Amino acid sequence: MQDLKDSIVELSDRFNEVKNGVNIPEKKDRVHLLEASSTSPEFWDNKDTARDQLQELADLNKSIEEIVKIEESIKTVEELLNDPEFVNELSLEVKRIAKELDELETTLYLSGKYDKKNAILTIHAGQGGTEAMDWTSMLYRMYTRFFERRKWKYSVLELNSGEEAGIKSVTIKVTGTNAYGYLKGEVGTHRLVRQSPFNADSLRQTSFARVETLPELTETDAGDIEIKDEDLDWQFYRASGNGGQNVNKVSTAVRLTHIPTGIVVTSQVERYQEKNRKHALDQLRSKLWIRERAKEKNEVQSIKGEYRPASWGTQIRSYVLHPYKMVKDMRTKVESSNPDAVLDGELDEFIEAELRLEL
Q: Could you tell me if 126 and 208 are in contact, meaning their C-beta atoms sit under 8 angstroms apart?
């Protein structure tokens, strides 16, 4: 019984610390402001801004509701603590509340300017040839499973398949609250060690892939980024892969080159060229924003890791399938002895530890 009492006291102390950090009165003031703004006749004049504000309003209301719910749950277990009939039930309830509090605490680490934005995630095969391309396809599956677990929507903007197997590179748009905030720490080289499925002798093989993450920025978000029409080289071509009956018959896919910087982005996910043009511009805007922030802070590697090759000595996480099984993050030292679960999308422990490391 004393252990249960101690757990409830610890839970209450943690909650009060989180509640103070969230600043409920400030959130409620913001809710009132957004609600008033949404009733204005001019609210939908800028659709991107309107959608962002409605999403912010929904997120704020959800956050407030979660805090109230946890607070009420803690009061209930405190009231029932002295009743021996509820000891077993209370133990389970305390564990449930602790899990909800863990998730609430994580949101405190997502305070960056663009953390709540959608994300554009790209995976590039590194050193290792076909092995690395197969590893890229495994990472693609891992991340998409993670998105599905979080009930985020995603769409493939571009996918370049390997000649023999796997994927050379893939770019994914991820739509969900805090998508960029959660995924920004995945930037870097991911290393795989396993027995080769492409070698008759089943030799041990090390493969690398590089992950890049960008926030999806609209013209309103990145107002300081100027994109001139004369600096853009547009090319249109027929898309490959899925996308509907029409996608492979007409030139709906888009390749956009920003002439001053040489940045190239592509999009072929949509059936209509105009939508692919918008995706390409959003990607370019995000890449230019990252470039500017890196230039200002002189921190290219820490912001995007763009100039770090996917090879030995640069990995942020290692996935070992042979001769033993382990996934280890080199920054947080978080480990898992179940790589199959991690590769099936169970990334929360690794991502949340990296978020705490940033604070």
A: yes
Confidence of residue 248 (pLDDT cuts 50, 70, 90): very low
Q: Model's pTM, two decimal places?
A: 0.74
Q: Decide if 315 contacts 327 (C-beta within 8 A).
A: no
- Give 126-152 pLDDT, tens digit per residue: 977 899 999 999 999 999 999 999 999
Secondary element (H or E) of residue 119: strand 119-125
| DSSP H stretches of helix in 39-161 | 47-80, 87-108, 129-149
**Average pLDDT, integer, range 347-359:** 85
CA-to-CA separations, 232 to 7, 90, 122, in angstroms, rounded = 60, 62, 22
Amino acid at 35: E
Residue 56 neighbours by CB distance under 10 Å: 15
174: which 2 tokens? Answer: 């991820």
Token pair 């490959």 is found at: 240
| Phi-psi label, residue 124: left if phi above 0, alpha if psi -120 to 50, beta otherwise | beta
Nearest CA-CA partner of 263 in 245, 283, 277: 283
Q: What single-letter DSSP state applies at residue 164?
A: S
Q: Which of 106-120, 171-185, 222-236 has the highest mean pLDDT?
A: 171-185
Burial string for 172-194 (b: 16+ CB within 10 Å, else e) reads bbbebbbbbbbbbbbbbbbbbbb
CATH class of 119-220+308-358: alpha beta
What residues have CB less than 8 Å from 281, skipping those under 6 apart? Answer: 227, 256
Chain centroid to CA 113 = 15
Architecture in CATH for domain 229-297: 2-Layer Sandwich (3.30)
Per-domain residue ranges of the chain: 2-108, 119-220+308-358, 229-297
Class (C level, CATH) for 2-108: mainly alpha
SS3 172: strand
Give the residue carrying structure tokens 């090759």.
309
